[in-house]
Recover the amino acids of this structure.
């Protein structure tokens, strides 16, 4: 597909095409976005760090390549925002935690290398719930991010900064990480597209770990086609990641125009239970739209998904308690002195970790402790196996599945901070795909009281091509979505 064709319905690809063809300069594109950031990010706080000098140097490099007749790549001159748990060489990578506030990685994450090689301009590091543990981006040590549609409401989490950056027009593209819904949930609440790829399809090398068997990096974009473009740039085998899948990544851009006629799509009944009426109505309207385009849509059951939330909040904290043990004040990050090594460990972690991170470390350590391992962690892993089997059974009858992304639209800041269980319920629709390792994505679908809603498209492992086909078809039929100041659809 040519750059011109890609740009026809893709803001990011359109910018890249203009830069590659000399119709725009990367410096001009960057300055427009830096101006938008300077104007509104003091209110939104999407960024922990805006990399002004680095981005300007990078944009000049891209323009220099064009002037020499070279092709800078598929993302030439496109500003991209990075979640602040993706390592960037020599640039603070804090995970929105005091314990890593001054840490500068000595290397780039693989996804950062790949977007840079494709000509992208990294514009900054975005805010997140500390160590990606949260559903509202209120758990950041540096203060909350606000939803560009209504600054009194949350943007979702944990990749709320990346979702808000795209929604507010600060960057056409962003990268986030999704452990239990941390790309899709904020994408839905901010009215943008968010994609969680198949586990192992995008390298996790350089992603600061939360729960290693669940974490996956993916794109945010204004359109399905732009998300597909960024996905193709970052996906593929990486020998630096032991969990990386061998073989080429699926081609998704070529699949997008194929439509959904003759496809079988299942509406997951369990994931419709308990959501707000507006969220359920959005999914039902999306199902009707697919039917109108020639797909066969039926309600189906994936029974074990009802246990997804319970299993996730044992597995993820257990892995977090292991991963976060490395923050001991010795090798890197914050160090608070104590009278002996044990005291130093305790003082460093007490000062460096926030309340939600401590809660999950304690829960995970308990679940892994002698006498409780089989009853809690082991049982949760058995439930995970049941979820995988139930999804496999569903995909014998359906090419893709449809569900709400979130139980409802964005909630007010502070509404759930004192009720962790209520906050955890924000991810009830997204967690099952993480436990199964399957791809899933959220696309904007209408609104409720002026706030965006999202519909979730799910597919079997390595089923990204089918998933993007369904998402693109739905995008073309979606009702008008609200657009914040500076944002676009």
């Amino acid at each position: 597909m040519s750059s011109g064709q890609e740009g026809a319905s893709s803001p990011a690809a359109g910018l890249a095409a203009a830069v590659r063809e000399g119709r725009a300069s990367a410096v001009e594109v960057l300055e427009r976005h830096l101006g938008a950031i300077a104007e509104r990010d003091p209110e939104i706080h999407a960024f922990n760090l805006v990399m002004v000098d680095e981005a300007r140097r990078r944009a000049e490099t891209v323009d220099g390549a064009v002037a020499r007749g070279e092709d800078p790549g598929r993302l030439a001159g496109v500003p991209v925002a990075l979640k602040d748990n993706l390592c960037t060489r020599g640039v603070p990578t804090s995970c929105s935690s005091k314990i890593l506030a001054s840490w500068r990685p000595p290397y780039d994450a693989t996804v950062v290398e790949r977007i840079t090689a494709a000509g992208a301009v990294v514009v900054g590091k975005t805010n997140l719930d500390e160590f990606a543990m949260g559903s509202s981006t209120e758990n950041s040590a540096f203060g909350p991010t606000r939803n560009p549609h209504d600054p009194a409401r949350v943007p979702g989490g944990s990749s709320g900064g990346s979702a808000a950056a795209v929604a507010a027009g600060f960057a056409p593209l962003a990268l986030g990480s999704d452990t239990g819904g941390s790309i899709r949930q904020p994408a839905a609440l901010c009215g943008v597209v968010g994609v969680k790829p198949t586990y192992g399809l995008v390298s996790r090398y350089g992603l600061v770990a939360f729960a290693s068997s669940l974490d996956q990096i993916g794109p945010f974009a204004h359109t399905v086609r732009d998300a597909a473009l960024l996905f193709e740039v970052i996906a593929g085998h990486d020998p630096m990641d032991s969990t990386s899948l061998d073989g080429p990544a699926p081609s998704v851009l070529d699949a997008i125009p194929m439509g959904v006629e003759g496809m079988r799509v299942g509406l997951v009944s369990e994931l419709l239970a308990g959501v707000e009426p507006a969220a359920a109505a959005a999914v039902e309207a999306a199902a009707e739209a697919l039917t109108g385009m020639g797909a066969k849509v039926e309600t189906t059951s994936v029974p074990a998904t009802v246990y997804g939330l319970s299993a996730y909040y044992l597995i993820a904290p257990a892995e977090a308690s292991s991963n976060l043990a490395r923050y001991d004040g010795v090798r890197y990050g914050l160090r608070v002195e104590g009278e002996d090594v044990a005291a130093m460990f305790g003082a460093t972690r007490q000062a460096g970790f926030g309340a939600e991170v401590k809660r999950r470390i304690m829960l995970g350590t308990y679940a892994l402790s002698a006498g409780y391992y089989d009853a809690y962690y082991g049982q949760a892993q058995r439930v995970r196996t049941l979820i995988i089997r139930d999804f496999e059974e569903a995909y014998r009858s359906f090419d893709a599945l449809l569900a709400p992304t979130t139980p409802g639209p964005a909630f007010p800041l502070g509404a759930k901070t004192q009720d962790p269980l209520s906050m955890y319920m924000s991810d009830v629709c997204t967690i099952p795909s993480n436990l199964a390792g399957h791809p899933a994505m959220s696309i904007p679908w209408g609104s409720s009281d002026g706030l965006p809603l999202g519909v979730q498209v799910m597919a079997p492992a390595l089923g990204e091509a089918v998933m993007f086909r369904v998402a693109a078809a739905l995008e073309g039929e979606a009702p008008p979505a609200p657009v914040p100041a500076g944002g676009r659809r």
Summary: Residues 3-302+389-477 form a domain with the Amidase signature (AS) enzymes fold (CATH 3.90.1300.10).
